[in-house]
Write a structure and sequence with these properties.
alpha+beta, Rossmann fold, 16-stranded antiparallel sheet, eight-stranded mixed sheet
Length: about 725
């Protein structure tokens, strides 16, 4: 058979060592940045086609990785003979941790070693693409030329063969990597392949780069893109010299140099990307490698190249730069979270998905690991592993809360709360202000016959003026400063209570409060709202002892038990928790008074993000206070357990990857929302009124397992106060 035109190889072998492109570990393997992280490479293997002279398939670098062999010259499966170049090239395909499946095609005759007919090479492209090769490597010179109109092989038009890289693999195509050649000249072509955009947009032309005092330069014998902007657009480089397989034995290696050696390194990079993200098409993969190529060479700062001496030398010699796998694997743009079951349904920025938890949750969600190993997606739809644990956080740390409590009671602090009271007929009122004159809480009481009502208004982070502790008359204690977990996320809370006497000993009680969230949730477009309604009875067992019991409902929007969520970590559109409460207040003799309060609830929540359902079986809060007043001395003791979720389970649906068609792969996860510990506060308060219109006192507070964290160290706080009125 008459072969119309033959081309030569673009590499030579020799002795010595070799090196990799920007290796990041001792093995020269590129590794992704730790955050975000990549999932493990799928070792099933992406098919990479290599069309070359011949192959020693028993070499250890090829024996386990070659998928199939075919001789395109004689139609057999025998690819032996003239094995040196092809074996070295194929051994360099494995890059970046991927293990491709090699389809090895012999395109030269043993009688014309080192040379192949261009029409056979063109045919090999279409053949390998149709055989499933997602990447095709041609370490041959002259591939910048398009075939002539009459060129064909085995009855297949050569241009049609090349165009298979655009339509093969179900439309994903094949990345076509070619060597630039080793003539040390600018690329030239009578029929430039860049005339055919469907081919050229999936093609990469690879030159060889070397290091010169740490700077990247083009190897002197490597061809370059020159002044042609089209060649510059698809040209990049890889190391000119590498250690590669030597076909003289099954376990021998040698140093090889040339653009034939540079090209398979880039082909390996493309295979690594497809291994991780098989949904990417050939045009996208090749463009990503071009866009992320390293342009740190000083040549890009030099504008003196070309015939006119006014062109950028970086693009003139290196094209788009040296291929950088780490940069190509890094996320394109910002990572986002999928909002639906398919990526086409939309994505949402990471910083929009947050959950600010109340103290009732403790460390449960953060310590569960349920938000680790979550799939996030870049602008190319590539999935990465991220840890969203830090996106779930408590509203206040125990340390910050304790400092705030102390400033509220310290006589030296401008934030100390000061109460003002007044009355007029059947009305009485009180206000709480800080040293800046800001009104933080107020209460208005009125009585009409057997009907009494109370209006309250207070900042969410302040003590509820109608709470059991506030009405007990017990001295200021650290344990009760800072409000309830249910209201702390609200800006302002408005409340109304009505008490109606049924007889001398039994009264009917009803209370309702409501409030809107702080700017935190509103800024994310999901404002938190909460309201609670309670109704019950109070029994005056004796003039000194009263017992009350109520049932109630807490309704929340975009939140649950004082916690607030947004984005894919929303806690549900509308949630409801039922509560039952028991209270006691007593006066024991002339000097003693006491109160106790217990609140217990259960409910559930339905979410539309990662948190699909929460089943709350038990949440509880309790407090006890005892005080003795005698003469100038006031002594108080208190015990408090802040609101804590006792038993609750959350069901999550977490994205962990994607399918080729864009379907989001999800994993169901179950997590207990019961914190590991139980915060308990014990406090002793003392106040002595001096004869000189002054007072001295202290608060000693001991907290076990702060934040309901079993591993948290106990905390002891001592606050001393001395004040004199002038």
């Amino acid at each position: 058979m008459l072969l119309p035109l033959v081309v030569g190889l673009s590499a030579c072998g020799g002795g010595g060592g070799g090196g990799g492109t920007k290796p990041t570990n001792s093995h020269g393997i590129h590794e992704p940045a730790p955050t975000p992280t990549l999932r493990s490479f799928d070792n099933a293997g992406v098919v990479v086609g290599v069309a070359d002279t011949g192959f020693r398939i028993t070499h250890e670098s090829l024996a386990s990785s070659h998928l199939a062999t075919f001789n395109l010259v004689d139609g057999s499966g025998d690819v032996s003979g003239d094995e040196g170049h092809g074996t070295a090239v194929a051994s360099l395909i494995e890059q970046g941790g991927a293990s491709p499946a090699l389809y090895l095609a012999k395109v030269s005759s043993d009688s014309s070693q080192g040379r192949a007919a261009t029409n056979v090479l063109d045919y090999s492209v279409g053949y390998l693409a149709d055989e499933g090769a997602r990447v095709i490597n041609h370490s041959w010179s002259g591939r910048a030329n398009a075939p002539s109109a009459s060129s064909s092989y085995l009855g297949v038009d050569s241009l049609d063969s090349l165009r298979r890289i655009a339509t093969s693999n179900g439309g994903l195509g094949s990345v076509y990597v070619v060597a630039a050649g080793n003539d040390g000249v600018a690329l030239q072509a009578d029929r430039p392949i860049h005339r055919y955009d469907d081919i050229y947009s999936r093609m990469l032309i690879v030159g060889g780069s070397v290091r010169d005092d740490g700077d990247t330069k083009l190897a002197s014998r490597s061809n370059r893109p020159g002044e042609d902007l089209d060649w510059q657009a698809r040209f990049l480089t890889a190391p000119w010299q590498r250690a590669a397989a030597d076909a003289s034995g099954d376990d021998t290696y040698g140093a090889w140099a040339g653009t034939s050696i540079a090209a398979p390194q880039v082909a390996g990079y493309a295979a690594a990307m497809i291994t991780l993200w098989p949904h990417l098409d050939a045009a996208t993969i090749s463009q990503r490698l071009l866009d992320t190529a390293d342009r740190s060479s000083s040549l890009y700062q030099d504008e003196s190249c070309g015939e006119g001496g006014d062109l950028n030398c970086g693009y003139y010699y290196l094209g788009q730069g040296e291929a950088d796998l780490d940069a190509a694997l890094a996320p394109a743009g910002s990572l986002s979270l999928a909002t639906g079951d398919h990526l086409d349904e939309g994505v949402q920025a990471l910083d929009h998905s947050l959950v600010q938890l109340s103290g009732a949750y403790g460390d449960s969600l953060a310590s569960s690991g349920a938000l680790a190993d979550v799939a996030a997606f870049d602008e190319l739809g590539r999935d990465y592993r991220i840890d969203l644990t830090d996106h779930a956080f408590q509203r206040d740390s125990h340390e910050a809360s304790q400092r705030s409590r102390m400033t509220r009671l310290s006589s030296a602090s401008p934030d100390r709360r000061q109460e003002q009271q007044g009355s007029a007929g059947a009305l009485s009122w009180s206000t709480q202000k800080n040293g800046h004159g800001e009104t933080l809480a107020s209460r208005l009481d009125g009585r009409f016959g057997g009907n009494a009502w109370t209006l309250t208004r207070f900042a969410g982070h302040e003590l509820d003026p109608a709470s059991a502790y506030a009405e007990s008359g017990i001295m200021p204690l650290l344990a009760f400063q800072g409000g309830s977990d249910l209201t702390r996320g609200l800006d302002t809370v408005h409340g109304l209570r009505n008490v109606y006497a049924l007889n001398d000993r039994v009264t009917l009680q009803a209370r309702h409060w409501m409030g809107d969230g702080t700017e935190w949730g509103a800024a994310l477009g999901e404002e938190y709202q909460a309201s609670r309604s309670d109704v019950g009875l109070r029994f005056d067992v004796s003039p000194q002892l009263g017992v009350s019991t109520t049932v109630g409902v807490l309704d929340e929007r975009h939140g649950l038990l004082g916690g607030q969520g947004s984005g894919m970590l929303t806690l549900g559109e509308r949630n409801r928790t039922g509560f039952a409460s028991l209270g006691l207040d007593a006066r024991l003799g002339r000097y003693w008074q006491a109160f106790a309060h217990y609140d217990r609830g259960r409910g559930d929540a339905e979410g539309r993000g990662f948190i699909q359902h929460i089943d709350i079986d038990q949440v509880e809060e309790m407090s006890v206070g005892l005080q003795r007043n005698r003469g100038r001395h006031t002594t108080a003791f208190a015990y408090r357990q802040p609101m804590r979720i006792g038993r609750a389970e959350a069901m999550l649906s977490v994205p962990v990857g994607r399918a080729i068609d864009g379907e989001v792969i999800r994993e169901g996860r179950s997590v207990s929302l019961s914190p590991s510990g139980r915060q308990q506060e014990f406090e002793l308060g003392y106040r002595y009124r001096t004869q000189r219109r002054g007072a001295i006192g202290f608060n000693l507070n001991h907290t076990r397992e702060p934040g309901h964290d079993r591993n948290a160290r106990s905390d002891t706080t001592l606050l001393l106060n001395y004040e004199v009125a002038f």
